[in-house]
Amino acid sequence: MFRHFSTVAGRIRTASVSRAVSTFAARSTASTMSSKIASGSLMVAAVIQAFALNSETMLTSCESLPVYGKPGTNQERTFLAIKPDGVQRGLIGDIITRFEKRGYKLVGLKMVWPTEEMAKSHYADLKKKPFFPGLVKFFSSGPIVCMCWEGKDIIKQGRQMLGETQPLASKPGSIRGDFSIDLGRNICHGSDSPEAAEHELKMWFPEGANDWTKTVDSSVYE
Ligand code: DAT
Ligand code: MG
After folding, report:
1. CA-CA distance, 138 to 132, in Å (whole number)?
2. Has 189 been annotated as catalytic?
3. Which of 9, 29, 121, 211 has a Cα at 20 to 30 A from 129?
4. Residues 170, 173, 176, 178, CA torsion sign
5. Quick one: how far is CA 14 from the chain centroid?
6. Are 119 and 110 contacting, i.e. CB atoms less than 8 angstroms apart?
7. 113-126 in b/e burial notation, b at 16+ Cβ within 10 A?
8. Residue range 14-65, pLDDT digits in tens
9. Which of 4, 122, 189, 199 is catalytic?
10. Within 10 Å of residue 174's Cβ, how many Cβ atoms?
11. Ligand nearest to the CA of 137
């Protein structure tokens, strides 16, 4: 998985994040396996075996939930990104905070400096638009923050929290309405459909996400 990850995201500068992903995956793999084993002795053997596996195997075997989650459920997932302008303007924390405070769960997070090829692939649906070359150049001009968010109706709600594509048409209270003015500097990206979320999450998180349990979910969902 890491080899594939390195090829796709050639300019990823987050080795420590990758190590953290690996550690987390190791933990969740061990715990998933443990819960499925009834006998005590078998459980001990399985735990030993889980820790003996290398990190590549663990990442692969940990993917019980696809990276794009389950659309239409509380495990729906979307790809949100803070674009180079949002990073430059110091808005990373503010944007993450809005989704955290709403009650959504962050299951993937990393900073990536996209190549032009990655930018072209991400915006492939817009390749015939006259603004495409400028968009690709801008999107690959600096690091972006890639996020995978999970929760009920997150794809649609995420788009609403971002605001309109055109910041001048975005309502105050939305991210674009509060923080941006020009179309080509609208600071954030969000998947616009389940199909787009699947495509984008597979592209930006080939290593998978973190299937952790949020203990306060009973205070978020009834
Ligand atoms: P969104 O980012 O809201 O999904 P989009 O997918 O239509 O919007 O376009 C991607 C980005 O391209 C958008 O965030 C800003 C830029 N863009 C869109 N329309 C544009 C236009 N007419 N001129 C310049 N840039 C544009
Ligand atoms: Mg779009």
Report:
1. 10
2. yes
3. 9
4. positive
5. 14
6. no
7. bbeeebbbbbbeee
8. 333 333 333 333 334 444 444 444 444 444 444 444 444 444 434 443 457 9
9. 189
10. 19
11. 1
189 lines ligand 1 (CB under 6 A): yes
Residue pointed to by tokens 């820790």:
51
CB of 192 closer than 6 angstroms to any ligand 1 atom: yes
Contacts by residues 93-100 (CB-CB < 8 Å, ≥ 24 positions apart): 94/179, 95/175, 95/187, 95/188, 96/147, 98/161, 98/175, 99/147, 99/149, 99/158, 99/161
> Position 102: which residue type?
R
Contact in structure between 109 and 146 (CB atoms under 8 Å): yes
Give the number of the ligand closest to the Cα of residue 159. 1
Ligand 1 within 6 A of 164 CB? no
More confident residue, 2 or 175: 175
